[in-house]
């Protein structure tokens, strides 16, 4: 077995190197066991920890070709520089600073690029520690490398690594050193940018194709004309019209490195005049590589391939996007910004230019996908961040830009590219809408400027969602697989398109309507005309369209009709409110048409037709019918406004619309129709009964039919659960919700109350029979049937209560009267099913909604009885058993129980105050001990919310003195009652801040802040230490801002005490730092009382304390700290 000397002095460098090479080869060999790998790892770690190991690593690096050995040796150096540098002898540091750069110069061409890059990083890490005091030529060495042609690539790698490691350093530096490094780097920026500009210019000029002037072609003339309007005589139009450079491989690699450096520099340097027009022009020269993939190389040169040319274009656009993403633009940079946009739109013109050989789409398809993504990113940043700055500039032709964006959008080669462009249009339309709303005086002139572009956009998007115009592309879209947002690719395509249509509608309502409605009418005529092709034979109906071509055309027309119905539904919101009267005629035409279509679909039963291609046409016919019902549902708010504003003049018209809509829905509420249609009809009924609420609805024969069907159905005819709930909700709404436009005396509450009681009695017929059940066993015959009855009935009752939870007292009274017997049955059954968590889960969900919506109607006595039953049933053992099964039904039961208690403790008045001690006891003595040391995130979240609500709503249970009295007395009266329970609650909160769950941490932090703002909690108890300790660990860094604010609020109770007592105590208790470091930390924590300065001091303290601990932990034993 191979070994490696623990004590490096005992072996020669040569033999150590051989042993190390053999070990490394063995470690990475496929046959080496994990146990042996651990042994080798331990050997290597021990070797690296020894004093002077770096000297041997220097020898290894100089004398090996083994990549594993090189990487290991560099890791030893990296560890030395980043963790042990402060304790290293100055002579050793000097030797390392001298040797490593020499090694880099000697070997950079012969080692793999990743070894070269790692060596560069180690040298930069030394610069991060020592430049400029002990390593004064660090940066000048890098600049010299860049200026030496043969070493320029190496210099650029060093420069990029320096930018990455020094501009945004990690926490292993003090704040003072970070600030110093940034300042030093900023001083170098003009020099660096000047050097990089020079390289780009030199290589462009060197490789530009110098050719005799060709005769003008139609396309070049068109390009110059376009440029004339875009640049208005800008000197850069000539530069950008120059022929493309043809780079050889070496030049290409160098220019790529320059652009990579620039991209990283631009990510942190502020916009300033150091970024010169010449530099911008050079970057744009190279950005052209992405959109001009054909060039003519100079004779005798080997030109780079298409992928490499695209890469240089991508890097150039990355630089541009880094600049454009900055929102803070100094005044003296705005002109540069304008120039940048002019240059980018020159590229946009090139991308969207048509000629005899290429369409725009074929040009874009040829381009690299990454380049197009970068270009789309640029357009998005321009529109979202800078359009407001540039739009009014006479030098920027915004309308021409929109024309180019239009061509770019509708010639995208991929769906993702098209979606991204639609997002850009959405941002632009939002910008325009905001601008128009804020400028009432010249609203029309602003709108007219963009009208043609918006009209064109609307028409093209409508064409793009229709198979009639865009069949090939639409058939590529997946309409089966759901994404993370639970929609298919087709649904996403349609939704994003319709969002843009809706935004245009908001700006140009009449025009948008006049564009959309005729297209809808055309497709509706095809659909309504199907009646003549229906052939009836016996009890079945058949659609007599069989020719393949006719079926295909019908399929496309039905798909388009479905999309257009969704479009019309999406526009419903633009017909209501202030514009109701002005757009009444258009909206009425739409609603009448929708009512006609839904009635036609239901009467002819198109969903049940036999067709020549059933797998295609049947779903199409069903979908059109469902979308027509959904579109009609979208106009329920318009119908409500119609009912309240004009129903007195058009009573018959309104009654006909509602009657027809109900007649269209009623036949579909049956198990015999596709579920999609059943749900659409149920949704429409819910909207009519909840939103429109016509007084005559209950008298309609179709409604009576639905009522009879639901109240007399047996198990075999029962609707699917979701549809059943919707229909029951609609019937309940009709009887419980107040009728609009009528006084209280005409609401017929008594009649409606009787009808509602009958409805609920019919719905709970089987459930109420269970009242006599006194015990069950898991093996009892019929148990599953009992469970099924409970699980079918309670969700329906819960839904009925939920739908009236925000309604008037009268509605809630009637609801509770109808439910009273079922509530009592549920309470009786609860103890029986306590060991069946799936059933108790349903029961508690029902009680939770009862407590939230009907606790006043239930009365104090009965509510108290329910709480008492729950508190006696949930023993500590029962709770523990449920909580320990995380994610189970039992766990959900405990969550709902705690939610119910949250409702109880929030109730004002004295009625439920007697339960407070029991609830607190349950919380702190039964639930908390079980969850304290476990993750149990769901139960924990509910338990802490319950604790918060107890404290917030019942503060005077603990502190009798009100805040007002305390203020009048000039301080906080600390007279406390129930002190043990208050202290236990505070300890529970404090303990949660020492655990890893960041969500609980954030929730509880917000609760304490709320208690402080409302009840001055921090005057009574402070959590300074909790947060200060957590801040020092990295586990909760995401909440650093929130913790700092909480510490500030605690400190502001008494700043003097915070600075004079708490801070010294805290620093003295900090482990891992010495007294001198504590003194520096204390000195740097400024005695400020405003939040921004305080925040800065806390951040500095946290950073520097972590830094000192890191330094001290890496010092050799016995090192003297100065």
UniProtKB/TrEMBL annotation:
SUPFAM superfamilies for this protein: ARM repeat (SSF48371)
Domain of life: Eukaryota
GO molecular function: nuclear export signal receptor activity; small GTPase binding
Residues of the Importin N-terminal domain: 40-106
A Pfam family it matches: IBN_N
Cellular location(s): Cytoplasm; Nucleus
Main location: cytoplasm
Database matches in SMART domains: IBN_N
Keywords: Cytoplasm, Nucleus, Protein transport, Transport
Entry's Gene Ontology BP terms: protein export from nucleus
GO cellular component: cytoplasm; nucleus
InterPro entries the record matches: ARM-like, ARM-type_fold, Exportin-1/Importin-b-like, Importin-beta_N, XPO6
PANTHER family: EXPORTIN-6
Family: Belongs to the exportin family.
Protein name per Swiss-Prot or TrEMBL: Importin N-terminal domain-containing protein
Organism: Poecilia mexicana
């Amino acid at each position: 077995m191979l070994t490696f000397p623990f004590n490096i002095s005992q072996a020669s460098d040569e033999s150590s190197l051989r042993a190390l090479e053999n070990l490394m080869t063995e470690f990475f060999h496929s046959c080496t066991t994990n146990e042996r790998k651990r042994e080798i790892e331990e050997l290597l770690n021990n070797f690296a920890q020894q004093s002077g190991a770096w000297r041997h690593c220097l020898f290894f690096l100089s004398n090996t070709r083994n990549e594993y050995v090189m990487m290991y040796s560099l890791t030893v150096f990296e560890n030395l520089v980043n963790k042990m540098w402060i304790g290293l002898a100055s002579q050793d540091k000097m030797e390392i600073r001298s040797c490593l750069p020499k090694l880099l110069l000697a070997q950079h061409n012969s080692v793999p690029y990743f070894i070269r890059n790692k060596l560069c990083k180690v040298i930069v890490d030394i610069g991060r520690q020592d430049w400029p005091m002990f390593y004064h030529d660090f940066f000048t060495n890098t600049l010299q490398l860049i200026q030496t042609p043969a070493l320029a690539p190496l210099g650029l790698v060093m420069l990029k690594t320096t930018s990455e490691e020094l501009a945004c350093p990690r926490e292993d530096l003090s704040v003072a050193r970070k600030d110093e490094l940034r300042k030093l780097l900023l001083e170098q920026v003009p020099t660096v940018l000047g050097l990089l500009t020079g390289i780009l210019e030199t290589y462009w000029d060197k490789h530009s194709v110098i050719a005799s002037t060709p005769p003008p072609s139609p396309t070049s003339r068109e390009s110059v004309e376009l440029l004339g309007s875009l640049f208005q005589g800008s000197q850069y139009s000539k530069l950008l019209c120059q022929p493309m450079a043809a780079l050889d491989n070496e030049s290409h690699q160098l220019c790529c490195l320059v652009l990579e450096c620039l991209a990283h520099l631009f990510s942190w340097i502020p916009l300033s005049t150091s970024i010169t027009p010449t530099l911008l022009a050079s970057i744009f020269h190279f950005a052209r590589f992405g959109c001009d993939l054909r060039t003519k190389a100079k004779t005798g040169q080997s030109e780079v391939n298409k992928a490499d040319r695209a890469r240089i274009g991508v890097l150039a656009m990355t630089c541009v996007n880094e600049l454009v993403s900055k929102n803070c633009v100094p005044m003296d940079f705005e002109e540069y910004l304008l120039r940048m946009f002019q240059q980018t739109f020159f590229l946009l013109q090139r991308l969207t230019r048509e000629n005899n050989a290429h369409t725009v789409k074929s040009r874009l398809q040829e381009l690299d996908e990454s380049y197009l993504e970068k270009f789309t990113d640029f357009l998005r940043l321009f529109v979202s961040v800078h359009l407001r700055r540039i739009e009014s500039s006479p030098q920027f032709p915004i309308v021409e830009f929109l024309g180019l964006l239009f061509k770019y959008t509708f010639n995208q080669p991929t769906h993702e590219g098209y979606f991204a462009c639609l997002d850009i249009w959405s941002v632009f339309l939002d910008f325009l809408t905001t601008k128009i709303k804020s400028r009432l005086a010249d609203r029309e002139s602003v709108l007219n400027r963009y009208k043609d572009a918006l009209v064109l956009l609307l028409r093209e998007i409508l064409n793009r969602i229709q198979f009639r115009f865009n069949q090939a592309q639409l058939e590529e879209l997946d309409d089966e697989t759901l994404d993370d947002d639970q929609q298919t690719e087709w649904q996403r395509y349609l939704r994003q398109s319709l969002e843009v249509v809706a935004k245009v509608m908001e700006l140009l309502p009449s025009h948008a309507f006049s564009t959309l409605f005729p297209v809808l009418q055309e497709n509706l005529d095809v659909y309504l005309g199907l009646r003549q092709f229906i052939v009836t034979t016996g009890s079945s109906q058949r659609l007599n369209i069989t020719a393949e071509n006719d079926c295909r055309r019908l399929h496309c027309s039905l798909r388009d009709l479905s999309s257009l119905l969704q479009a019309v539904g999406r526009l419903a919101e633009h017909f209501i409110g202030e514009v109701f009267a002005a757009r009444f005629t258009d909206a009425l035409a739409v609603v009448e048409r929708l009512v006609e279509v839904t009635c036609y679909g239901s009467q002819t039963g198109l969903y049940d037709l036999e067709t020549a291609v059933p797998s295609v046409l049947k779903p199409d016919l069903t979908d059109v019918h469902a979308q027509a019902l959904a579109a009609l549902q979208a106009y329920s708010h318009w119908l409500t406004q119609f009912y309240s504003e004009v129903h007195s003049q058009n009573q018959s018209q309104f009654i006909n619309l509602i009657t027809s809509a109900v007649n269209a829905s009623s036949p579909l509420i049956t198990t015999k129709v596709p579920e999609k249609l059943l749900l659409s009809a149920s949704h429409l009924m819910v909207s009519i009964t909840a939103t429109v609420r016509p007084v005559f609805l209950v008298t309609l024969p179709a409604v009576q039919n639905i009522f009879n069907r639901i109240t007399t159905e047996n198990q075999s005819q029962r609707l699917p659960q979701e549809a059943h709930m919707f229909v029951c909700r609609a019937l309940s709404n009709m009887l419980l919700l107040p009728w609009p436009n009528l006084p209280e005396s005409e609401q017929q509450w008594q009649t409606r109350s009787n009808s509602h009681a009958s409805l609920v009695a019919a719905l709970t017929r089987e459930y109420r029979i269970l009242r006599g059940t006194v015990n069950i066993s898991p093996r009892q015959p019929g148990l599953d049937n009992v469970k099924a009855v409970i699980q079918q009935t309670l969700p329906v009752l819960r839904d009925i209560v939920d739908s009236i939870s925000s309604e008037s007292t009268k509605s809630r009274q009637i609801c509770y009267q109808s439910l009273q017997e079922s509530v009592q049955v549920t309470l009786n059954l609860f103890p029986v099913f306590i060991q069946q968590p799936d059933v108790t889960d349903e029961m508690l969900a029902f009680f939770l909604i009862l407590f939230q919506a009907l606790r006043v109607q239930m009365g104090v006595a009965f509510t108290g009885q329910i709480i008492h039953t729950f508190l006696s049933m949930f023993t500590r053992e029962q709770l523990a058993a449920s909580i320990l099964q995380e994610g189970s039904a039992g766990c959900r039961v405990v969550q709902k129980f705690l939610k119910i208690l949250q409702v109880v403790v929030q109730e004002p008045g004295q009625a439920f105050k007697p339960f407070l001690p029991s609830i607190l006891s349950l919380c702190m003595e039964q639930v908390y001990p079980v969850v304290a040391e476990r993750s149990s995130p769901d139960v924990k979240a509910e338990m802490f919310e319950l604790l918060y609500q107890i404290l917030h709503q019942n503060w005077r249970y603990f502190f009798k003195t009100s805040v007002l009295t305390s203020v009048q007395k000039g301080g906080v009266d600390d007279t406390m009652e129930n002190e043990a329970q208050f202290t236990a609650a505070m300890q529970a909160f404090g303990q949660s801040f020492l655990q890893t769950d960041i969500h609980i941490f954030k929730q509880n932090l917000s609760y304490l802040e709320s208690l402080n703002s409302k009840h001055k909690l921090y005057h009574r108890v402070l959590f300074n230490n909790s947060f200060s300790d957590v801040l020092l660990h990295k586990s909760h860094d995401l909440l650093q801002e929130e913790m700092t604010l909480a510490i500030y609020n605690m400190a502001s109770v008494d700043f003097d005490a915070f600075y004079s007592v708490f801070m010294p105590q805290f620093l003295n208790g900090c482990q891992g730092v010495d007294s001198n470091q504590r003194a520096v930390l204390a000195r740097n924590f400024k005695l400020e009382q405003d939040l921004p300065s305080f925040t800065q001091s806390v951040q500095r303290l946290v950073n520097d304390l972590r830094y000192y601990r890191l330094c001290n932990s890496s010092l050799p034993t016995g090192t003297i700290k100065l």
